[in-house]
From TrEMBL:
<dbReference type="InterPro" id="IPR027277">
    <property type="entry name" value="NadC/ModD"/>
</dbReference>
<dbReference type="GO" id="GO:0005737">
    <property type="term" value="C:cytoplasm"/>
</dbReference>
<dbReference type="GO" id="GO:0004514">
    <property type="term" value="F:nicotinate-nucleotide diphosphorylase (carboxylating) activity"/>
</dbReference>
<feature type="binding site">
    <location>
        <position position="203"/>
    </location>
    <ligand>
        <name>substrate</name>
    </ligand>
</feature>
<dbReference type="InterPro" id="IPR036068">
    <property type="entry name" value="Nicotinate_pribotase-like_C"/>
</dbReference>
<keyword id="KW-0328">Glycosyltransferase</keyword>
<feature type="binding site">
    <location>
        <begin position="139"/>
        <end position="141"/>
    </location>
    <ligand>
        <name>substrate</name>
    </ligand>
</feature>
<dbReference type="Pfam" id="PF01729">
    <property type="entry name" value="QRPTase_C"/>
</dbReference>
<feature type="binding site">
    <location>
        <begin position="271"/>
        <end position="273"/>
    </location>
    <ligand>
        <name>substrate</name>
    </ligand>
</feature>
<dbReference type="InterPro" id="IPR013785">
    <property type="entry name" value="Aldolase_TIM"/>
</dbReference>
<feature type="binding site">
    <location>
        <begin position="250"/>
        <end position="252"/>
    </location>
    <ligand>
        <name>substrate</name>
    </ligand>
</feature>
<keyword id="KW-0662">Pyridine nucleotide biosynthesis</keyword>
<feature type="domain" description="Quinolinate phosphoribosyl transferase N-terminal">
    <location>
        <begin position="30"/>
        <end position="116"/>
    </location>
</feature>
<dbReference type="GO" id="GO:0034213">
    <property type="term" value="P:quinolinate catabolic process"/>
</dbReference>
<comment type="function">
    <text>Involved in the catabolism of quinolinic acid (QA).</text>
</comment>
<dbReference type="Pfam" id="PF02749">
    <property type="entry name" value="QRPTase_N"/>
</dbReference>
<feature type="binding site">
    <location>
        <position position="106"/>
    </location>
    <ligand>
        <name>substrate</name>
    </ligand>
</feature>
């Protein structure tokens, strides 16, 4: 796996999200659990078991879900965060008030299964180009409310995070270019207004647009939906003119095409696939 840093946001940021998801699930109360178990009085134990192979992601988040319900719950990760699991493998052991374990089960599992699926598919893309200089990058195509966690999962799988939001950097896409009346106008207008040190990335679809982005000193040039042959020409053009410029490839990136794209010499390859096309990694919680 290529080196990548996966940093989980602090819980002062995440707690509001986790609490809202617990409230969504619990509603006015867990009718089943509250009818069967006295609050905080009955001790319980549980294990998380993997039912499919993959990379485990989200264990610290799952632990926090249970602890928001009862601060005394102990959540022990048996499989390390970012580690590989096989079917039947114990992923975590949990001990604490039985009502907290039962009420937190669904939210915690849902998050971990979703994030583990993303990390697992991300790693497949990363491994396809592991011996090449190009780096795999995620996108802003994320589930509303889950962006911080989904991008954490891609990083855990070996990807590099692209901008987290619209305020992180400037990306001038086709609709911006159309609205501004061209790449040159778009770059000039943006450069007058953005604060230092935001970078300017421009999406290009042909060599003429690449040339225009170079003339106006874009920091990053995206080669969008280009053929491999055109992409190779664009990379050569950019390298000859300004080696400072970073090059990103995007559009129709699949596990079958990513290596050929990386071999053109681009710096980054971005794709939404690990988030939009991943399957949840099946995990189950067993009591006792």
């Amino acid at each position: 796996m290529k080196n990548s840093v996966a940093v989980l946001p602090p819980f002062i940021v995440l707690d509001q999200l986790l609490q809202s998801w617990l409230l969504e699930d619990i509603g006015r109360g867990d009718r089943t659990t509250q009818s069967l178990v006295s609050q905080n009085s009955t001790p319980g134990k549980a294990k998380w078991i993997a039912k499919a192979p993959g990379i485990i992601a989200g264990l610290p988040i799952a632990a926090r879900v249970f602890q928001l319900l009862n601060s005394e719950v102990k959540f022990v990760s048996v499989t390390s965060e970012g580690g590989w699991c096989e079917p039947g493998q114990v992923v975590a052991e949990i001990e604490g008030a039985l009502d907290a374990l039962l009420m937190g089960e669904r939210v915690s599992l849902n998050l971990a299964m979703r994030l583990s699926g993303i990390a697992t598919l991300t790693n497949k893309y990363v491994e396809q180009i592991a011996d090449l200089p190009a780096k795999f990058v995620d996108t802003r195509k994320t589930t509303p409310g889950l962006r911080l966690l989904e991008k954490y999962a891609t990083a855990l799988g070996g990807a590099i995070n692209h901008r987290m939001g619209l305020d992180d950097a400037v990306m001038i896409k086709d609709n911006h270019i159309s609205a501004a009346g061209g790449i040159s106008n778009a770059i000039n207008l943006v450069r007058l207004q953005i604060p230092y040190p935001l970078t300017i990335e421009v999406e290009t679809e042909n060599l003429a647009q690449v040339e225009e982005a170079l003339v106006h000193q874009a920091d990053i040039i995206m080669l969008d939906n280009m053929s491999v042959e055109m992409m190779r020409e664009a990379v050569n053009l950019i390298r000859q003119r300004d080696r400072r410029v970073k090059i990103e490839a995007s559009g129709n990136i699949t596990l079958e095409t990513i290596r050929a794209v990386a071999e053109t010499g681009v710096d980054y390859i971005s794709s939404s696939a690990p988030i939009t096309q991943s399957r949840w990694l099946d995990l189950s919680m067993r009591m006792g």
